Amino acid sequence: MKNRRLITFLGLILCLGLHTVSAQSDYFFPANARFDPKIPTPEQFLGYPIGTLHTRHDAIVGYMRELARLSDRAKLDTIGETYEHRQLVVLKVTSPENLANLDEIQAAHVRAITPPIQEEDLSDQKSIVLLGYNVHGNEPSSSEAALLTAYYYVAGRHAEVTNGLKDAVLLIDPAFNPDGRDRHSTWANSFKGDPMVSDPIDAEHNEMWPRGRTNHYWYDLNRDWLPLAHVESQARIDFYHQWYPHIVTDFHEMGTNSTYFFEPTKPFGSENPVVPRDNYDGLNNLFAGYFHESLDEIGSLYFTKEQYDNSYPGYGSTYPDIHGALGLVFEQASSRGHLQDSRMGKVAFAFTIKNHLTTSLATVRGAVGERETLVNHQRKFFRTAVEEGKKASGGWVFGDQTDDGRNAEFIDLLTRHKIKTVQLNEDITLKGKAFKAGSAFYVPNEQSQYRMVRTMFEKVTNFYDSIFYDASSWTTALTYNMPHERYTGKADLDGKVVDRNFDGSTYIGVEKTSYAYLIEWDEYYAPKALHYLLEKGLYVNTAFRKFGLKTNEGEKEFGYGTLMIPVARQEVNADLVHAFIEEATELAGIRAYSVKSGYSTTGIDLGSGNFRTIRQPKALMLIGGNVSSAEAGEVWHLLDDKVGMPITKVMTSSVGRVDWSKYNTLVLPSGNYSSLGKNTIDRIKQWVREGGTVITLRSATSWAVSSKFVNEKFAERPKRDVPARMDYVTSREFNGSNAIGGSMYMTDVDITNPLAFGYTQRDLPVYRNHSIFLAPSSSPFRTVVQYKENPLLGGYVNKTNLEKLGGTASLIVSGLGRGSVIMFADNPNFRGMWYGTNKLFFNALFLGNMAR
Ligand SMILES: [Zn+2]
């Protein structure tokens, strides 16, 4: 009966119902394949045929470990672990002779691409193939394909495998995102019926918020190869730079009604400006031949060139292109579940796995067949990088004089990407910008990572195209709000090369006092110290005016937002206050100053009413429903990682059970909150009137304005000249060009507003990927961040939108009774790489109730 049901529902994987080794191999593998019977198939190891269940991550690792244990062709490396302590593993597969000499092969390969690159005999060089799978956890077919791919090369006895492995080293990374994968797999397996239900509305095909695409913190790891905000990407990049593969795969799933996609992506419009053209014009077309031949053979439909983006450097298929490799994205129509109806019949999980397996094998075939081309491409890539960098001459100087924490984070990013960075010995002034020795750094152009240097510092505003799948700007120096300037001198600047262990901490310990301590607020990690002190129950005040006075380190000026902790009026004794100050500043890596007198030499005295006591935030964030899991995850990760502060996450479906008296701060990430219902919204409004602070992000801001939660307005919408009649075929291009898809703009910040305390310059780059045009506040004092006229820094925007953006608001605050509503039009925490605007969010959290 069971078999009959499978035949009826699953003609395609009929063979799977027979439960025999050869039947499954027949379905998945080419006819000429022969296997070593001593190596278990995935099915023998797992106890079920591939495609009939979603394989748990620990079982994937278990199978890889078993292959390494049994075979002289394979070795398993653990390269890191996820937040939920799942192992990140790579199975290295090559011929037994190569495996015995793997360290030498690796060293010879890296030497061959390290400048100065000499002419040498390359006939011994191997193709290094990084087969990466399943970065999006709910696109699960690829990890199953990884199991079959590993089996194929470890157990295969036919010539394609045995000869191929002499020329190639396969690095099989079966799951880029194990936490997300298991979240999805558990869902799909839990709802699987017997017989299976292919109806798309069935729960099996519609997983629950936040879904499995993302990692533990709901981040898209296929955007994280550049920002490296997460442990998975950090481990992966370390491994990447040990191997510099020649070819890298990145497998995905798309809509169930689609077919299959392989590169080339859309010509020109989807390409990254620093990648040499021979990648797109040469390698991509060369490999497309391998892919279409193998898919033609199994009768699979596919498309190429029409779409998909290859420009943003944080993609798994683009980052390799900027490292002399060929990065390849593959997209398979998803069965999302085990079997689902589509417009062209049923899509079975096994079928989706088979397609990804087929292109995996084609990738290796191509890597072996085109070995010399790939080796030469990569060597030429790094040789020309150095030549172009030398021709460009000079480099970039950067550094913030007041924020060592942010400097250290930026240096950490540069060094993780192997970008040579030097700490300068002397002060330097470039185009009027002063950089001070100690907090001044230099990145020379002449280095093999020159193209990554361009990625970090150059602004791009010219584009072939107007449709962007994602971001059109990624200038990292701007996301860190890092003061930087081009240095065009011929001679390199002198200094010491910094490495990954660069320590940005300025903590030196502070002398005990019985009067007061001061902590500057312009340090990135000051909120971490503040949170610690509030947790310890100390009264901490913030300065609403500048002042100067004598400290243990001499006369010193202090800016807006400086924390002032008096000693005598605390509820603990002076010894404990001192101990807490030491612990907090050491934890945050910042400095505290002690004073013996509150009498200032300039500005306000320490007893002034312009010092106001900070309320400890008791924060709650709504999640679930239509709330953006990405933005919610960014807030959650920011507070965990950068502040060490807990935030209560409440599903919108549970909001009726909230005891609002326990909280004073509510975070609303993008979403439409009308679905909460009038009673709940009225309850929240009442809570704000009694003193609560609401922080809205992006479309939540839009909701607050349009639902009249606050009395603010949108700016007049841009009107575009639209011809009365246009050709149908141009509609996508025309509509796309009106969207604002991930670009950077310059704003003016009112640095005297508590929401901007800690900023020392009025210029601040922000990120915009939406079309919300927020009018300045009805009060002249409450537009904290405003777009400058002609504000574009980088990325694509059309002329009409750009003209209308000038003068609109990026951040405003509105009063409501005794409370305040803080409205971000732009997301200050985007992708964990906007260190520059994070401080606005920290201020909203800690000082938001004083901002109105
Ligand atoms: Zn994907």
Question: Which parts are unreliable, with pLDDT below 50 for 5 consecutive residues or more?
Answer: 1-19
Radius of gyration: 29 Å
Q: How many DSSP helices?
A: 24
> What class do helices, strands and sheet pairing give?
alpha+beta
Q: What is the tally of beta strands?
A: 33
Bound molecules: zinc ion
Work out the strand percent.
15-25%
Give the strand order of the largest sheet, numbering strands 1, 2, ... along the chain: 26-25-27-28-33-32-31-29-30
How helix-rich are the residues, as a percent range? 25-40%
Q: Quaternary status of these chains?
A: single chain
Estimate the mean pLDDT confidence: 94
Distance between the termini: 70 Å
So what's the overall shape? globular
The profile of the biggest β sheet is: 9 strands, mixed
Give the topology, please.
Layout: H1 2-9, H2 21-28, H3 42-46, H4 57-70, E1 74-81, E2 87-93, H5 96-100, H6 102-112, E3 127-132, H7 141-155, H8 159-167, E4 168-173, H9 178-190, H10 231-243, E5 247-254, E6 260-262, H11 277-298, E7 326-333, E8 339-342, E9 345-348, H12 349-369, H13 371-392, E10 395-398, H14 404-416, E11 422-424, E12 428-430, E13 433-435, E14 441-444, H15 450-457, H16 476-479, E15 484-487, E16 495-497, E17 516-519, H17 526-535, E18 541-543, E19 547-551, E20 554-558, E21 563-566, H18 574-588, E22 593-595, E23 602-603, E24 611-613, E25 619-623, H19 629-643, E26 648-651, E27 665-668, H20 678-689, E28 693-697, H21 699-706, H22 731-736, E29 743-749, E30 763-768, E31 783-794, H23 799-805, E32 809-816, E33 819-824, H24 835-847
Parallel strand pairs: 3-4, 3-5, 5-7, 25-26, 25-27, 27-28, 28-33
Antiparallel strand pairs: 1-2, 2-4, 6-7, 8-9, 10-14, 10-15, 11-14, 11-16, 12-13, 17-21, 17-22, 18-21, 18-24, 19-20, 19-23, 29-30, 29-31, 31-32, 32-33
Bound molecules: zinc ion.
